[in-house]
Amino acid sequence: RAARMAGVSRAEIQQRVREKDAKTFEGKLSMEVLRELYPHLELEADPVLDRIQKIKAEARPKSRYSDGLLPDQETLLARLKDYHRALLHARSALNTSEVLVRDTVEELKRSANASGPLLRTSLNESLAILRKLLHRLQVTDDTVITRVTREPLPTTAFTKVSILPSGHEFRLEGNDSILEAGLKAGFYLDYGCTNHNCGKCKCRLVSGSVYKMHNHDYFLSAREREEGYILACCYTADSNLVIEAGEAGVEEDLPQQEIRAIVRRTWFEGKDLALLHVQTPRSQTLRFKSGQQVEITTENGNVANLYIASCPCDGRNLQFLVAREPGNPLSDLVFGHGVTKQTVMLRGPNGRFVLRKESASAALFLAKEKGFSPIKSLVEQAINIDHAKQLRLITLDTYPTRSSLDNLCRAWNDSLENFLYTPAAVQTSVEGLVEQMSVALSRTPRTDVYIAGPTDWLDALTAAARSNGLETDNWHCQPVH
Fold first, then answer.
1. Helix, strand, coil percent content, the chain, rounded in steps of 5
2. pLDDT tens digit string along 72-103?
3. Residue 95 contacts by C-beta under 8 Å, 6 or more apart in sequence?
4. 451 pairs with which residues across the strands?
5. For the chain, what is the total number of helices (H) and then of strands (E)?
6. E strands of 143-187, at which residues?
7. Kind of pairing, strands 293-297 and 229-231?
8. CA distance 212 to 75
9. Is 52 exposed, middle or buried (0-12, 13-18, 19+ CB in 10 A)?
10. Whole-structure pTM value
11. Strand order in the sheet with 241-244
C-alpha cells in the first residue's frame, strides 16, 4: 500500500528503506516515515486516505457525538431563539401555576375556618381555582413543558420532524435538508434528483419554521405556496416540524426507474473481487431500499443483476461488488479491459430483502461470498438509523483479510459501541456458524436475523439451526447466486 501511495514498486521502496535506515515494524511503515522517504508526496490528497477519513466520519455514533454536527450560524440562531421562546413560555406557565396554587391554599385555609353556606362557597372557589390550574397544566404539558424538560440544551443543534400521515419521526442534524435527514433515518420519502429541480420531494409544511438552503427551478404555484408546500431537498428546520410527505412503507414497491449512469471508479479488493462506484446524474438519482438489486447493462450489451452494496440514503453514489467468474461477461469486462468511465444503464430496483427498522431492538447480519453486497447495504442503513441497541455482523468467505471492505467492517467495530464484527474462519462449517448465532441470540433474544449467501448453504444453515433448537421462521434470508 505504501508503494502504491508513493507511486513506486515494492522493490524500490524496500531499497529506499534500507538506504535511509528507516524504522519499520513487521514490514509496515508509518505515515511519518513515508513522508521522510518521499517528501514530495501530497498524502492529504491521496484517495486511500480520503476513504479512511470518510469511514471515520461516517462511523461516529450519533448519540454520543451529535453536538459536533452544528448547523450554520443563521439556522443555529433561529433554533436558539425558538428554544428561548419555549423556555420563556414554560417559565410563564410555571409562574402562573405557582400563583394559582398559592391562591388555592389560601382559599382552603379560609374554608377550614368557615361553616354552613360560607364553607360551601369557599370550597366552590377552591375547586374553580384547581380546575383552572389543571387546565393550565394540561395545555402547557402538550406544548412547551414536556419539550423543555425532556430535551437537553444540545438539541438546539438538531430538531425533530414528524411525517403525516404515517406518524414517523426523525431527527434533523446540522445543515442536513429535510430530505437528507429523512433518508438517513431510514424512511423512503419521495424524491427524484439532487439538483433541486424535479419537484418529486414536494411536501406540505403543517407546523414549524424552516430555512431555505438552496434555490430551485421547480415552479410552485401561488396557491401551493399559500398552502405551505416546499421542496424537502431545499429546506432545513429552524424548529420542530410537522410535514405532510409522500412516503413508501417497508412492504411497498418503489417505482421502477431507468437511469443512465457512469462507472466512476473501480477498486480491486484482492485479485478476485472488485468494488464499482457508479454515479447517477444529478437530475435523476436512484430511489431504492437497502438489500435490493438492479439490472445493469454495459455499453457492449452485457446484462447482469447486481445487489446494491451501499446505503439508500445516497441514491446518486452507488456501490456494486463484482466477483471474478471466468465466462461471466460482466466479470470478464471488469477484470479484463475494465469498465471505469463507461456508461451503464440501471433498471430497478427489485427485491424484498429489506431492513425492518422498527421490529426489534437488535439485529444479526450474516453474509457468505456475494451475499455481502445486500448485507453491507442493510448494515450501512442500520448504522445511519442508529436505532438498534445491538448490531452484529458475521462474514464468511466474502473478501480478502485487510482489504478496504474488511477495514470498513473493523472501523465500524472500533468506532461504534453497539456494533460487533466477527469474520468467520475460512471454511467454517454451518454447525460452527449456528453455534456462534446461538450464543449471540441467547444474549439478545429479540433479534432480527438477516442472512444472504448461496442457496445450498442457506438451506443447510437453516436446517442445522432448526435441529439446534433455533426458531428460523422469522429469519430474513436471501439466496445470492
1. 40, 25, 35
2. 666 666 667 766 666 777 777 777 777 777 77
3. none
4. 366, 477
5. 15, 20
6. 158-164, 169-173
7. unpaired
8. 10
9. middle
10. 0.70
11. 169-173, 158-164, 241-244, 202-207, 229-231
